[in-house]
Amino acid sequence: MLALLLARQGISVVLLEAHVDFEREFRGDTVHPTTLEVLDQLGLAERFLELPHRKIRQGGVPTTPPLTIDFGSLPSRFPYITMMPQSHFLEFITREAASYPSFTLLMGATVRELIRDDQQIVRGVRFQTRDGRGEVRALLTVGADGRFSRLRHLADLRAIKSSPPIDVLWFRLPRLSTDRRARWRSSKLATAWSCSTVATCGRSRICCPRVATSTSTPPACGLWAAPWST
Ligand SMILES: Cc1cc2nc3c(=O)[nH]c(=O)nc-3n(C[C@H](O)[C@H](O)[C@H](O)COP(=O)(O)OP(=O)(O)OC[C@H]3O[C@@H](n4cnc5c(N)ncnc54)[C@H](O)[C@@H]3O)c2cc1C
Fold first, then answer.
1. What is the DSSP pairing of strand 13-17 with strand 103-107?
2. What does the CA dihedral 151, 38, 6, 46 come to, rounded to 10 degrees?
3. pLDDT tens, residue by residue, 15-26
4. pTM exceeds cut of 0.90
5. Helix and strand numbers, DSSP H then E, in the chain
6. Cα of 146 to ligand 1 centre, how many Å?
7. What DSSP string describes 138-185?
8. 107 CB less than 6 Å from ligand 1?
9. 206 with 228: CB under 8 angstroms?
10. Radius of gyration, alpha carbons of the chain
11. Fewest CB within 10 A of the end CB: N or C in the chain?
């Protein structure tokens, strides 16, 4: 997104992505109203919503009694959660960025080193591709390489640690034509179920039988999550 914003200003920007596509790892499927509002401010929301997606207008919280959240009451032009694979979102953003001549995307380019000048100021990066090594010299180098950021490590920066009270188990399963809807939280995508559950105890056990054994325990997508009891 930053690369897109810089390119829109006519600033020359090179985006390096270690993988050859954005499909490599499951990273969730929800695009939230605030994200859509940002896209809207950039004039991109309408085009974005032309991509295949589903809208979730209500959600349930598994409390006793169960709580229903109505996203429709959000003070937003987009009072719903958009279900779309994150890879499609990233492809959309980079496609938009590519319409600006000042934007360059290098896929399959893994940053290995920072380039520093005599005063140890970072002036760019050296990267590796299948075809060999390369470098980008830049006034500003931004490390946006995820939780285990190599750039952060190379720059001797320390992440601020936090201690979230819950873990969220979130994953995708292939969707079969014989699957019925899961009882617990899952959303239908074109070819998959996007499943999530909150694990407050820190550890969970997941069982994945594919075939329903009785109508009283419909596995739908063939999956349960339960607190780890030992
Ligand atoms: C299981 C799961 C489900 C999630 N679900 C949702 C959701 O539904 N909705 C939502 O809004 N958020 C969701 N999130 C959070 C969201 O995925 C993250 O907040 C977001 O991906 C963080 O973006 P990022 O660019 O900081 O890091 P990342 O997404 O990790 O991207 C970092 C990128 O840097 C690349 N990279 C790494 N090292 C190098 C290197 N040396 N050189 C070049 N490139 C490199 C990686 O290949 C990667 O593409 C989920 C996260 C997880 C783990």
1. parallel
2. 120
3. 999 999 998 766
4. no
5. 5, 15
6. 5
7. -S-------TT-HHHHHTT--PPP---S-EEEEEEEEPPTT----SSS
8. no
9. no
10. 21
11. C
* Residue 16 CB–ligand 1 contact under 6 Å: yes
Q: Which pLDDT does position 225 carry in this prediction?
A: 41
H/E stretch holding 28 reads: none
Identity at 217, one-letter amino acid code:
T
Kindly report, residue by residue over 144-201, the tens digit of the pLDDT.
999 889 999 999 999 888 877 777 777 777 777 777 665 455 665 666 777 777 666 5
Query: What secondary structure letter does DSSP report for 48?
Result: H
Which pair of tokens denotes residue 62?
């598994």
Q: Cα angle vertex 19, ends 29, 128, to 5°? A: 155
d(CA 222, CA 208): 6
Distance 21 CA to ligand 1 centre (A): 13
173 — phi, psi (to 5°)?
-125, 150
Q: What are phi and psi of 204, to 5 degrees?
A: -135, 160
Look at residue 64 and give its three-state secondary structure.
coil
- Beta-ladder partners of 116: 122
Distance from C-alpha of 145 to C-alpha of 161, rounded to nearest angstrom: 17
- Asked if omega into 101 is within 30° of 0 (cis), the reply is no
Residue whose tokens read 């399963």 = 173
> Residue 110 has which token pair?
């893994």
- 179's tokens: 């699957």
